[in-house]
Each structure stands twice: as structure tokens, then as C-alpha cells.
Amino acid sequence: MLKIYPVIAIIGLVISIGSVIRKSPFFNFTGILVCIYGLLKSAEYVMPALPSQVILMYMAMSFFSFFIYFSIQEETFKAFLEPMRAVFADDNKALLRVLIVFIGLPLFAGYLTYVKVKPTYDPPVSARIVHPEPPSQMDFRGKSVNVLGLENPLRKDAANFAKYVEEGKKIYYQNCFFCHGDDLDGKGHLSQAFNPVPLPFRGTDTIAQLPESFVFWRVSKGWRGLPAGSGPWNSSMPSFEDFLTEEEVWKVIMFIYDSTGNKPRSW
Amino acid sequence: MDMFIRRFLRMRILIAVLIAMCFSVSVYSADKPADNPEGKKIYDGWCAQCHGYKGDADSFTKDVSLPKPRDFTFGSFKFRSTPSGDPPTDADITKVIRNGNPGTSMPPWSRFSDAEVKAIVGHVKSFAPDTFAMETKPINVGNPPKASKEIIEQGKELFKTAKCVECHGNAGRGNGEKGWQADFKTDWGYGIAPANYTHPWELRNGSSLEDIFRTISVGLSGTPMTSYMDSIPDDKRWALAHFIKSLQLTRKLGLALKVRKTETLPSKPNDPAWEAVDYLDLPMGGQLMFDTRNFTPVITNVRVRGLYTSKELAILLQWIDKKPNDGSDGKPSDSIRIQFPINKLEGTELPYFFMGTGKAPVNLWQWRASDKDKVSSMTAKGPDKIEPKEKPEATVMATYDDGLYSVVFKKELKPAKDDPVFEAGKFIPFAVAAYDGQNDEDGNTRGAISAWYYLMMEPPMPLRVYVFPPLVSLGVLIAGIGLRKRLRKKKV
Question: Which residue from B332, B315, B336, B313 is spatially nearest to B323, judged by alpha carbons?
Fold first, then answer.
């Protein structure tokens, strides 16, 4: 695909160079500004796009400094003003005068004013912390549990690992898959109804980065346990202590790690 | 930090490679379904949770999904390109695995390689060896005729004469009388609802013109939808397909609905004037957070429209209910609730999206089919703490037309200081919960619910928008003329 802003920058450069040869400071000035604008906008192809405020600031600075440069010598300044004067005054520029001075500029100014005064309405956006800091302690159905340093007790029973995973699978498909998905990809058949959409477990940026204790806290407390910065009022994650036992929560956690090929973070 | 990111990226690649190695390509021979360890392994891992380890759908999800998972041992397959009575082709089964069945819990499986899918298909077929012993091939779909007013009109006629309406209803919403008789069942022995054509995003067998034509032609085995290949000629089936295609709605998803100001509100919920008003579709999910959880909601979409005058705000909610229940037939009454915050909260903070909490309660307006044009106003501080209000805050009107409920809530608008939530130009949070009595939804936790959305009463365009731009244009023009005159004089 042709990138538009580098093209603008090159056109500006060509105008600028051409006008140096033809000794026209006004077009030189215009060409330089066009080129700078093109370059500033091109930045978005190699880094995050520059905010429009920043671009406006750079453009204003360029405008004034080049304007000073071109107006400092009287002769140059006269030549600089010449094209503008010609459009206004010369008899052979009548068509250009009508197009630019009497039609183009008034319409452009009107349009800028319209954009400025027309009210715009955008729904509120909320930034949301996806993985908030867990508490050091929580309660599970009234029983106090230390989240800090909490380990999955079933992992110690390595002989029954496959059995626990299979039991976790059953729990997952009777409680979680509606939202988190048949394939644990967060695309469950009811997921579309909720906002934020349920998280996937596949991939390396959710449970793969979390210790099991964190997952235990999230599954057990759900939306109720979220701090305000994580927008508990929008979360459709149930508090699974209402529906599952501690052991069942650990089993389902084993299943979601095992079936996605992820390992709990242990550091 | 950089170091960490780089290490993390490298780890990601490593994990991807490891996973890829776990599912490395295997060679599978089609004529020996018994020797298909690869197919069995993937099936047991990723299909058996619903279809059962023995392929009989006696599985983890049998009671929590609707429609129920397919029982492969039965040897009857709904989604085929082959004539009625024939087994599906390998390509048919592959298509279901790859594309999923929209509107069901069968998702599209894109993660598996072609060889892996082939192995799964082999294992699925091994559950009904007799069925697949037969040779078959797909029907010839041919080239569809172009859509035209005439062909759609012809299809509409046929839709009645071929008795499609008996099950699918006049407007194709799946609300035909016959669909609700006691013997309207599948060969598997459970009830089934006729398809609603207006929601193309949940047509199990696909929503394209060819998909519809194929479905009419070969039918859906094991269901009351029979094959019409022999009874209706090709060109007429295409006409039917065109008509059915023309009924499909365009779903419009988003976060906010802008509500326009108008002089007078439409007099009825089914007034055609509403159709010209902008809408927002809310995808609905089951209520899953509180006991009793609803894993099998049947109301999947609520369409919202709004209009306001200087005195009133009107909100129209429309959804499809194939079988209306007003509470007189032993089933709960159909109902709908719309919810707003009671107080303005800090920043982007909101009450809980389903029925609020003690700290941040919500206002509910409820309409029930059993109460006709009566609205119930309630305050909710959670699903178990809902208190009726003495004075209703809104009025309601409702209609039911051919499978479609249309309910309009109207609210009197007050000055912003008396009613800060309903202020023009502000984004007003709202959420919806809808209940289908036929699906035993009880009007509270067992229902279909939406997330928070916003509606905004768009203030009329301020006068300055019409005044300032022309004034500025005129000013610039005058300045231009002035400058021209001055410069010209100078020259002379």
C-alpha cells in the first residue's frame, strides 16, 4: 500500500527545491512546511503516532522561524510577498483570484469554524486494570485464606494428577466454557454479551504470567473481589465460592493450565 | 525492562513451538477408523466434553447447552450437502468443525491442522460405521439466479403455499403454530424450535443464499425440517431462498445509542415510524453470576431505539420470542426489564451491571406479558433485594406481532436538577434483562441479560453551528475584496 504522508513530504521537498531554482521564496516556504508536515505525520509508521497537539506545536514553530528567515532581508521579503500580491492585484490572475481569494479561502475558513463549533459526543471510556494486585488475605465461604504464598494442595499428589485434571475439565465445561470458550480462547458462545469480554487462557499473556494463588483468588471472588480500578461493576465473572468448593476451584485451575500447555508462574 | 520484554517474546515463541510439537502432523489412513489414535486423542481432548467419549452426547455439557450436543452414534446428521437419508460427506463434517454452528456452543475450530481435522472426522465417523458404509455425493447446487423484486415476491408466495409458515411463521421468526405442538420433536426425542431467519448470525447451517438453498433442498436430518428437493423444483427453491435471505436483519453492535429529538412520538410500539429511527443491537447472554444461573438463554438479541420530545423520553425494546407466554399456560410470563443507575456516580463508576448493589442501587422498569400495559417500577440493591416503588416512574405499551415483542417505555423528562440521570447531552447508562416464559425463565436471575450500554438524548444542533461558519466565510471574502482593491490602487 502506498503510504500517503511520505509522499506528501517528498512533494513538499520537490516544491521547495524547485522554488530555490526559480528564486521564489514563497513557494520555498510553503514547500518546506508541507515537507515538515509530511515528515511529522510519517513518524506514525515507525513509532506511535504523534499527538495532533504536538504536530500543531511543531508546525507553528516551523512557520514562525521560517517566516522570520524569509522576512529578515527586505528584498527577499518582497519576493516572498510577490505571489500573494499577484493573486490579489494582477489582471492576468483573475481566474486564480476568484478560485482562491473569493471561493477557496472563505469556504475553508467557514469549514474550520464549523468543525470548531459543532458539538461532538463520545461515550465515556474507562481505563481498566486487567490483573490488579491481589490482597494478601481473602476469605473463602467465611474461611480465612492467605493468598500470599498460597499453593495448590492437589499438585503435591502427583499420582492423581490426570484424575484431578479430568475432574477439572468437567467443572470447566459445566461452569466456565460459556464465556471462556470451548477452546479456552475466551470466545465462549455467551461471551459476546459481556463487556469486558472474558479473558482467554490460551496464549502467554494471561494465566501463563500469573501464579496459581492469583487465579484462585480471581476464580473464588470474581467481580466482588475486584478493586475499583478494575471496574467490578462491569465484570461478569461470578464469585465461584458461591458455586464450587475450594478443591473444585483448584481442580479447574489445574485443567486450564494443563489444557492450554501453560505453567503457573512460580517466581 | 527491554531485556525482560525480549526474554518474554523469546519465551512466547518457545511455548508456541512446544505446543506445535505436541500436535505435530500425523498420517492417518481413512479406511481404518479403528486405527486412528491421533483422531481419538484430539476428539477425547477437545470434542468429548460435549459429544461424549463414546460419541453418544452423554457428556459434561448435556444439561447446560441448548441446542444439545450431537449424538454421533445415532447415525443421523443435520448438516449435510447430500440427499436426505444419506450420510454427510467428509467435507460436510470438516465444514462443521472449521466453521462451527452459529448460535450454538459448537465454535469454529481453526487451531487444528487439516490433517488433524481429517483424523477427527475419521473418529466421528467410527461412532456410526453402518451409516458411513454407504456411498454418497453432494447435490448439485448450481448457479443462483440474481436477486430481484419479482423473485423475492415469488418466494414470499411460495413460503405460504409450501407451508413454510406453519413452522417458521409469517415473518420467518420461527413462531409458527406447528412448532409448538407436543409432537414437534427431533428423532433424538427432544423438543426443537423452528429457525428464526431474521437473525443470520445464529443460523446453524449458515446464512448465505447457497446455505439456505441447500438447507431447503436436503433438509436437516432427524428434525421436522424435511428435504424439499423432490417436492419443489430448483427455481422455486431459489425463489424461497431469496425471500428468506431478504428477511435477515443487519445487526448493529456498539456501546451507545444516540436518541433524536422529535415533535411527536409514534403512537404505538409497532408503529412503522419507528423503523426509520436509528437502533442498537444488544447481544444477550445468560445470567451467570447469581443462583439460579441461566446457561441456556433463548433471547439472544434485544434491539433498542429511542426518541424524545421536550416532555418525554421513549425507549423501544424489540426481541424475538417464538412462543408468547402470558402466564396463563402454566409457564412463567414473558417479561423485560430495563435498568438505570439511581444516582450519578464518580467518574466512570457504575452500579453493578445486573441489578446493582446495596451501595449503588439501580432503578428498574419492568413489563410483564401477564400485566398488559402496566409498568412495575422497582429499586434493586442486588438480585435478591428488589423493592417495588409506590409511584411508577414510567409508562409502558407493548405489542406482539408474529414472533416479535415491541415494548415502549416512556418517561416524563424533568429539569436536570430534579433528575440528574436523565439529562440531555449526557450518556445515560442502561442495561436490559429479558425473560422467556417458555424457557422457564422466572423474571429475575434466570434470564437473558445485557452489559451496560449508554443512551444519549442528542441536543438539537446549537444555533451557533448555523450562524458562525457563514459569518466567518463572509468576513474572509470581504477582507479579500478589500485587500484586492487596496493592492490594485497601489499598482495604479
Answer: B332
- Alpha carbon distance A41, B417 (integer Å): 45
Distance from CA of A155 to the nearest CA of B (A): 21
Contact call for B484 and A195, based on CB within 8 A: no
How far, in Å, CA of B406 to CA of B418, rounded?
A: 30
CA distance B34 to chain A (A): 24
Gap between the Cα atoms of B193 and B173, Å rounded: 10
Max CA-CA distance within chain A? 98
> Tens digit of pLDDT for each residue in A23-80?
889 999 999 999 999 999 999 888 888 888 999 999 999 999 999 999 999 988 998 9
Considering only CB atoms, B472 lies closest to which of A109, A118, A194, namely A109
From chain B, the residues in CB contact with A243 under 8 A are: 291, 293
Task: Provide the pLDDT for residue B11.
Answer: 57
B23, pLDDT greater than 50: no
CB A203 within 8 A of CB A120: no
- Say if CB A237 and CB A225 are below 8 A apart: no
- Binary contact (A110, B50; C-beta < 8 A): no
- Cell for B332? 412463567
Cβ neighbors of A68 (< 8 A, separation 6 or more) are none
CB neighbours (10 Å) of residue B255?
15
Which of B66, B76, B136 lies closest to B101 in space, CA to CA? B66
B288 and A CB contact within 8 Å: yes
Cis peptide before B107 (omega within 30 of 0): no
Q: Please name each of the domains of chain B with its CATH number.
A: 28-132 (1.10.760.10), 149-246 (1.10.760.10), 256-460 (2.60.40.1190)
pLDDT by residue (tens digit) across A130-177?
Answer: 899 999 999 999 999 999 989 999 999 999 999 999 999 999 999 999
Q: What are the chain A neighbours of B488 within 8 Å (beta carbons)?
A: 88-89
Confidence band of B33 (pLDDT split at 50, 70, 90): very low
ipTM of the complex: 0.88
Grid cell of B134 as nine digits: 454407504
Give yes or no for residue B180 having a pLDDT over 90.
Answer: no
The answer to whether residue B134 neighbours chain A at the CB level (below 8 Å) is no
CATH 1.10.760.10 fits A137-260, yes or no: yes
Task: Return the closest-CA partner of residue B116 out of B25, B230, B195.
Answer: B25
- Specify the residue for cell string 521579503: A77
Q: Is B295 on the interface with A (CB under 8 A)?
A: yes
- B450: closest CA among A28, A190, A65? A190
- Does B285 contact A191 at a Cβ distance shorter than 8 Å? yes
The verdict on B293 touching A (C-beta cutoff 8 Å) is: yes
pLDDT in tens, B323-345: 999 999 999 999 999 999 998 77
